[in-house]
Design brief:
Number of domains of chain B: 2
Family (chain B): Belongs to the UPF0014 family.
Order of helices and strands of chain B: HHHHHHHHHH
Oligomer: heterodimer
Shape of chain A: globular
Order of helices and strands of chain A: EEEHEEHEHHHEHEHEEH
Organism (chain B): Ureibacillus sinduriensis BLB-1 = JCM 15800
Structural class of chain A: alpha/beta
Main location (chain B): membrane
Membrane topology (chain B): Multi-pass membrane protein
Subcellular location (chain B): Membrane
CATH topology of the domain at 7-90 and 158-239 in chain A: Rossmann fold
Number of strands of chain B: 0
Chain lengths: ~240, ~250
């Protein structure tokens, strides 16, 4: 039975050049609605750049990006960024408590955000009310990433971009975050785009996988179908041949 | 004071020159250049002021103030080269600071509208505004560079550029204003302010000298607040493009 998928984000010949060196070269493809797409590749492959383009933190020098069928440039950046959340690898925080950080998306819009609402979001990511008034910067790596995920959910995004959010975590925290993201995807239908260095993680979690290297999209497709070629690429990565 | 008496004060230049040579500080050349420049610059200003005061022409007053603003702008802009259009932003700030302070001083007839009052007061206020702008730009560019992640975080959550740099902007405004406020807390206790000392040495009544000094320090508070706030609010939009993206290397 052939499945048809709807594009959540579609790229048409995306390129980015900084100075004379190309960061991304002619990327075309789609991230599908309601699915988890994993992006794998070595450092310098252009994965994070591509991710930041999805919520207009970076603009390509050529090509077009469509959010569903709407050109990204015709959507106001603040509206776009509320609909497309991003969680970054280093989980940056504003100075203050967990509550202040979780409330940030609402306070930026001048909306009230109660403690009760904050606790609900903490519970979604498996934390409880005792975290509410702890200083965000004092938390462990895993807890910080959970707070970052909770904060990104406050805007009720349709798409969630995750940039190597488990790369600095211990195996137990990695497993917790993976389960959490899978649950968010299944229960809320949020489209997930997840950058990872870990090829096993990419296969385990992704409905689809993109393999990127040196600014190019080498392969993309259903994670299970890609498995053989993915392994070959992994060997190249681990040998460090293409690492920059 | 005669030129013969004044020449004796060169002994104060001789002492650091001897110390620099003896201790091998290597500051003899800079000390000599600074001495010669100060003699030439101050004598030139002295004769220029004498000409302007004698002429009592409004055009000369405006020309003198324009020269002060131009020099202060060119000096301060070196610290904010990465900020697009910093030259006109600084010039506009200095013009507004000068207009507001002199507007109050002359509008309420606090000081007479003569060159003897307008030019020295303008010099103090524009000079202070220039230092404040440099302090602000130094701090603001450092704050932006050290908190790019937080700025990008706020943008990524749907915040506006103003919201994204608000903390850095307010920190830099606060940091540049603090020295002015702090120095006023100990004024008169640690050292007598230059203008007041000058008036007293010149034979003025000390109480009268204090009144003028108070006028200046109150005006300096306005100068401090206006300079950093104006440079700040004029500068931050240029750190972002029309897609609300923090421009790479915008503040380095």
């Amino acid at each position: 039975m052939k499945h048809t998928y709807t594009s959540a984000i579609r790229f048409e010949n995306i390129s980015l050049e900084m100075g004379k060196s190309p960061i991304l070269a002619n990327i075309s493809g789609s991230f599908y609605k309601g699915k988890i797409t994993t992006l794998v590749g070595p450092s310098g492959a252009g994965k994070s750049t591509l991710l930041k383009m999805c919520n207009a933190l970076i603009t390509p020098t050529s090509g077009e990006i469509f959010i569903e069928s709407t050109p990204i440039d015709s959507v106001h950046p603040t509206v776009l960024r509320k609909n497309i959340g991003i969680v970054l690898q280093n989980a940056p925080f504003i100075h203050g408590t967990v509550y202040e950080n979780i409330a940030l998306p609402s306070t930026l819009q001048g909306k009230e955000f109660t403690e009760k609402e904050a606790v609900l979001f903490l519970e979604v990511v498996g934390l409880d009310h005792t975290f509410l008034y702890r200083q965000a910067e004092d938390l462990s790596g895993g807890q910080k990433q959970k707070i970052s995920i909770a904060r990104s959910l406050v805007n009720k995004p349709k798409i969630l971009l995750l940039d190597e959010i488990t790369s600095a975590l211990d195996p137990a925290s990695v497993s917790e975050i993976e389960q959490l993201i899978s649950r968010i995807n299944k229960e809320s239908g949020v489209t997930i785009i997840w950058i990872t260095h870990n090829i096993e993680q990419a296969k385990r979690l992704g409905d689809f996988t993109w393999i990127m290297m040196e600014g190019k999209l080498l392969e993309s497709g259903h994670s299970s179908i890609l498995s053989t070629s993915v392994k070959e690429q992994v060997q190249l990565f681990t040998k460090g041949v293409h690492n920059k | 004071m005669t030129y013969t008496t004044l020449s004796l004060t060169l002994l104060f230049v001789l002492i650091p020159l001897v110390l620099s040579k003896t201790l091998k500080l290597g500051l003899q050349k800079d000390t000599a250049i600074a001495t010669i420049r100060s003699i030439i610059q101050l004598l030139a200003v002295g004769y220029l002021l004498k000409f302007v005061f004698d002429a009592q022409s409004f055009i000369y007053i405006v020309l003198m103030i324009s020269l002060m603003i131009l020099t202060a702008t060119l000096n301060a802009r070196k610290k904010g080269k990465a900020i697009k259009g910093i030259t006109w932003k600084l010039a506009l700030t200095l013009i507004i600071v000068e207009s507001v302070t002199q507007g109050i001083l002359l509008g309420f007839k606090i000081v007479p509208a003569t060159a003897q009052y307008i030019i020295p007061i303008s010099g103090m206020l524009i000079g202070n505004s220039m230092v404040l702008s440099i302090l602000f730009l130094n701090r603001f560019t450092a704050e932006i560079e050290s908190s790019r992640d937080q700025i990008e975080l706020i943008l990524s959550l749907g915040g506006t550029p103003k919201q994204a740099v608000q903390r850095q902007l307010l920190n830099a405004i606060r940091a540049s204003m603090i020295p002015t406020i702090e120095s006023q807390k100990t004024i008169g206790l640690v050292q007598l302010p230059g203008m007041m000392s000058g008036q007293i040495i010149g034979g003025a009544d000390p109480v009268q000298a204090v009144k003028f000094q108070l006028l200046i320090i109150f005006a300096l508070l306005t100068t401090a607040a206006l300079s950093s706030v104006l440079v700040g609010f004029l500068s931050y939009p240029t750190l972002f493009n029309e897609r609300m993206q923090l421009i790479k290397h915008s503040a380095t």
